Automatic annotation (TrEMBL):
The gene coding this protein: Sypl1
Compartmental location: Membrane
One Gene Ontology CC term in the entry: synaptic vesicle membrane
Domain MARVEL intervals: 17-223
Alphabetized InterPro entries for the sequence: Marvel (IPR008253), Synaptophysin/porin (IPR001285)
Record keywords, A-Z: Glycoprotein, Membrane, Transmembrane, Transmembrane helix
Species: Formicarius rufipectus
Main location: membrane
Similarity comment: Belongs to the synaptophysin/synaptobrevin family.
Key word Ligase present: no
Transmembrane segments: 103-125, 137-158, 196-219
Name assigned to this protein: SYPL1 protein
Membrane topology label: Multi-pass membrane protein
Length: 235
């Protein structure tokens, strides 16, 4: 094991590593992780309906939703204080999409933290990294795992986003019981545009590509294939 003094003694700052493919790609992974996290985790939206019922004409009601997209907790406001003479009961959006959204955002946060740690090693301990067989192997293993998890989480999140759009679109009207009450009509008005969530999917696939490329860079730039040959020969 290495003591703190040992690590400090080996510290040698070399920012030129950032101009090499291994460091350059790691910076992009760090940036892509930030944008994936921000575009998905910061979303706020609302669905608006136009309601007419007993004593009320053309009143807008809204249901606000946000990350992590537990839509079943988003409730439409009542059209009036008397709730349409008692015909307007609690009305919620349908669906809980939190698991896939949180998986995507958590992976982005973990990738962000790992990129910082890796950049510290690349910049401050590049000589140690190149000479130590365990560090490149660890970096390679993390890159393989990250590329796989980004692919899975992005595909799942893309499918979930399509479901979220469906669950907040005009098709929700037939499923609202309060809108079926005698004398009550509901019309879909609008839902917040989700372009930023589309962007989060794009950054998810950019993470897949960058981490996939990182696998090859770690393998090549650190001469990992030579290390593996030596390991196989020794065994």
């Amino acid at each position: 094991g290495w003591s703190l003094l040992g690590w400090l003694a080996c510290l040698s700052m070399d920012f030129s590593v950032l101009l090499e493919p291994l460091g350059f790609v790691k910076v992009f992974e760090w940036i892509f992780a930030i944008f994936a996290f921000a575009t998905c985790g910061s979303f706020h939206g609302e669905v608006t309906l136009l309601v007419s019922c007993e004593g009320v004409i053309n009143k807008t009601v809204t249901a606000a939703f946000t990350y992590p997209f537990r839509l079943n907790t988003a409730e439409f406001s009542a059209p009036d204080p008397k709730s349409c003479a008692g015909t307007w009961t609690d009305v919620h959006l349908m669906g809980d999409f939190s698991s896939s959204a949180q998986f995507f955002v958590t992976l982005a946060a973990l990738s962000f933290l790992y990129c910082i740690a890796a950049l510290v090693v690349y910049i401050g301990y590049n000589q140690v990294y190149q000479q130590n067989s365990k560090l490149p192997l660890t970096d390679f293993s993390v890159s393989v795992l990250a590329a796989f998890l980004w692919l899975v989480s992005t595909l799942v999140w893309a499918k979930t986003l399509a479901d979220i759009k469906k669950s907040t679109g005009a098709d929700i009207i037939p499923g609202i019981e309060a809108c079926k009450a005698p004398g009550t009509t509901c019309h879909f008005v609008s839902v917040t545009k989700m372009g930023i969530l589309n962007v989060s999917v794009v950054f998810g696939f950019l993470n897949v590509a960058s981490w996939g490329g990182n696998i090859w860079l770690v393998y090549e730039d650190t001469k990992l294939h030579n290390q593996w040959n030596r390991i196989s020969e020794s065994t």
